[in-house]
Amino acid sequence: MENENSTTVTRRDFLKMAWGTLGAVALAEMGIAAFTFSLPRLDEGEFGATFTCGAVDDFPPGSVTLFTQGRFYLVRLAGGGFLALYRVCTHLGCAVPWDPVEGQFVCPCHASAFDQTGAVLNPPAPRPLDLFPVTITDGTVTVDTARPVRRDHFLPEQAVYAEAS
Amino acid sequence: MTSNLTTNLKRFWRSVIREPYTGDRRSRLRVVMNNLILHIHPAQVPTRALRFTYTWGLGGLSALLVVLLAVTGSMLLFHYTPSPDAAYNSILALQTDVWFGALVRNLHHWAGNLLLVVAFLHLLRVFFTGAFRPPREFNWLLGISLLLLVVVSNFTGYLLPWDQLAYWGITVGISILSYIPVAGAWISRLLLGGPEIGAATLLNFYALHIAVIPMAMLFIMSYHFWRVRKDGFSIPRTVAEPPVERVEKSMTMTDLVRPEAVMATVAIAALTIWSMAVAAPLEPLANPAVSPNPAKAPWYFMGIQELLLHFHPLVGAIILPAVVLFVLAALPYLDTDMDAVGIYFRSRRGRWLSLFSFLWGVLITLIYVIVDEFFLDWAALFPGLPSLIANGLVPFALLWLGIIGYFELTRRATRATRCEAILATFVLMLAGFITLTVVGVFFRGPGMALIY
After folding, report:
1. Which of B200, B253, B328, B346 is deepest in the core (most CB within 10 A)?
2. Which site among B165, B189, B208, B293 would you substitute to test the A interface, given the most A Cβ atoms closer than 10 Å to its Cβ?
3. Taking the model in full, what pTM does it have?
């Protein structure tokens, strides 16, 4: 036993470490399983799917059209560009109705107001209404509601235009 | 034959109770140790700790309400369907077609709301009497965990009726959570089970409400009670009195058990009468397209929602409550110079400071709410700065400076000890919180504008 002192790991230590490691791995596995188990499950075809809104010409410039099932307003700006605004207020999640007389979205909960582009006219909303991506193919407008896109300001390039035919 | 039956019944009863109760001193001691329910108590308790006006029976009342909630909750399970299509109708059917259905629902509703109040008062009692000092500081933490579980339990139960109140209260509540930095959006999505409140949310909340939270509460409550027994009761004393050296003891059976039974009976009777007279609210079926005006969170979150009207959401709803909660949890570890366990409000000076701080807290909060509503615009004071800084971190820093300033001022101006200054600051913030909640619940109308 001349190597007695140079051995830093005894058999007992080794077994302890092995058990400890195995236990930690098992705990991690259970944690991952529990976590993935509780992840959201999405039903296809519900809100979150892609909506076909109609022909470009169905929406006159300056119009705001609510798609109840899709939770969005399809806005056609005066310049002809399209925006799909998520109906949910960026402050605390209330449903924001369009007020056609004032030409504003006014939240009933905390009086946040947004203009036609979704930009904040009146706080407490901290940022403009979220956008859904708009696609125009062959003169048909579709909106993908899978994930709302956050933005800090309205920029003209957020509007989607029909390709000149 | 009858005598044989009686004998057998006696034998059976004898097997249930383990030991006959004769009422003599030895038996009164042994019954507490040998009875499943009674053994939560020690066999003897300090006579002084029995004084009702010291504890107000708040811990026992909380436990009783939890039992009531478990019983009424189990009954409701038999008539409730956790799906958006059926939930509201099952509540309507419960209220109209089920015998005593409305009464059981009312009892569950009011017991749940009362539990929030009683558990919070219990926390205040323990703080004001200094009972969280060693060796009870860890039990203070267990108590705070239980209070949080009660809040989560109320919040998850709030969605289940699936009416307008439920739908928009929870929408606002979860939107508050989504302001947590980095993890917020993810947490809200996990709770919602999707992008907005729907079938998955209802099922999530249902499972949390009826299984996960009750089990966690049962476990932590047992731990809490066990620590009360192990750590012992704090002994009340008058302002000038030194700590009691030799404590006189009373018999748990019946000097403690009798008042407990009286209190429980009175509480159950009062709650039942209240529930017969006042119905739990039920609004029209949830409509995701129409937010009511104003849309309010559940009342116990109205203090936080009121903060949201004044500060950037990250500060008002997350940072400020998180800091307050952390300090609250750390209190027994900060309050190091106290020798006032058992004295309400620490000392004569502590009592005056508490009264003064409470009035001061109400006044400052009211003034700030009114000034901020009509005159003050943080964003306009700092043009060009993002809302988070102008309307969030700047007022937060000022508020925190004010709180620390109040602590230091109390120490210097009134020569208060550290624990008295902590008491004064605590009462100041408590008064602010209560005022905000009252303003939010009663004085906010359409568009959350001040009404009076």
Report:
1. B346
2. B293
3. 0.89
